[in-house]
Amino acid sequence: MTIELPTRNATDGGNGTDDTARTTSAILTGPRPPGGDETDASPYDLGDPDLSNFAAARRRGASTATGLANTLRPADKPLLNDRDLPGPLSLNSLAGYGTLRRLDNVSGYRAAHADTLYGRSTILTGMVPRNATVCATTAAWLWLGGTFPGTVDVISRSHYRASVHERSIRVFNRKSPPEHLIRVGDTRVTTPVRTVCDLALLPETQDGNESIGRMIAELMAEYQVTPADCLDILNLNPFWPRASTARAMFEGMNEP
Question: What are the extents of the domains in the chain?
Answer without folding.
Answer: 19-76+116-254
